[in-house]
UniProtKB/TrEMBL annotation, chains A, B:
Pfam families reported in the protein's UniProt record: FUR
Name recorded for this polypeptide: Fur family zinc uptake transcriptional regulator
Family the UniProt entry places it in: Belongs to the Fur family.
SUPFAM superfamilies per UniProt: Winged helix' DNA-binding domain
Entry-linked PANTHER family: ZINC UPTAKE REGULATION PROTEIN (PTHR33202)
Molecular function as annotated in GO: DNA-binding transcription factor activity; transcription cis-regulatory region binding; zinc ion binding
Alphabetic keyword roster: DNA-binding, Metal-binding, Repressor, Transcription, Transcription regulation, Zinc
GO terms, biological process: negative regulation of DNA-templated transcription; regulation of secondary metabolite biosynthetic process
Amino acid sequence: MNAPQLTKNQALVFEVLEKADGPLSAYTILDKLRDHGFRAPLQVYRALEKLLEYGVVHRLESINSFVVCAHPNENCHSHGTVAFAICESCGHVMEFHDHEVDHRLMDWTRGKKFKAEKTTIEIRGLCETCAA
Amino acid sequence: MNAPQLTKNQALVFEVLEKADGPLSAYTILDKLRDHGFRAPLQVYRALEKLLEYGVVHRLESINSFVVCAHPNENCHSHGTVAFAICESCGHVMEFHDHEVDHRLMDWTRGKKFKAEKTTIEIRGLCETCAA
DNA sequence: TCAATTGCGTAATGCTATAACGTGTGCGAT
DNA sequence: ATCGCACACGTTATAGCATTACGCAATTGA
């Protein structure tokens, strides 16, 4: 799924996330866009839904937040499962991919005949700076 | 962290989860315990907090639900990271552990000097039965 | 005895997400 | 051309998840 031209709302939401240098909740995004005419959560959620679909934004399940994909131009969906390390102190997020992990998880699902649709890997803790 | 004697509320919540054969949300648990005098979400959340701490219950971040640990008597916290496969059709959850995955993620965090506190691995999809 | 800890109960609130309705616009098929 | 469809959008209301703040009671241990 590649990203077509974004609509106005999608572009606004994306821009806010891009500038944020950290994950944002839908309601935080909403607040940042009130000046641009946003009035309801649904406007944000609808835009996010598409951005997630296009693979340019990721959702962090463990903190109910959203973050731009670390791979600006490539299609993130082709990298296999995305993993995140989330600093609980500064909020910074590192995105990475590990094919060996993917492979192990795929082996397991295959063994169980489980049809995986979406895999979440999120490590919460402290980044180097904050742990020091 | 091993589980001491559970308090009344903790035992009630645990029992409900144990009988459930699938993950339950905190509010579902609350509803099931109204007859036993539960009246507020906090009663459930407080019990869950302890049960999570004792390692006898897990939280599924991606579906905001809770499930009993698949290892009745051992201390789950000693198995390394827990992974879950969650069927989006029937709601059934399989818990598993993969040391190789743990190892790969630990390698990554060590390389980044990231101090991991809690790792979430959740695979959503369809179980063998539901996929057929 | 006093202070600290822990569990509990209640009320209120806050945060996250979706349902249900209707509007307008672009576009292809007839 | 116009009808039907898909899609984005706007608004209101509601559902679902989680925590804050307050106070009380029992337990423990200095």
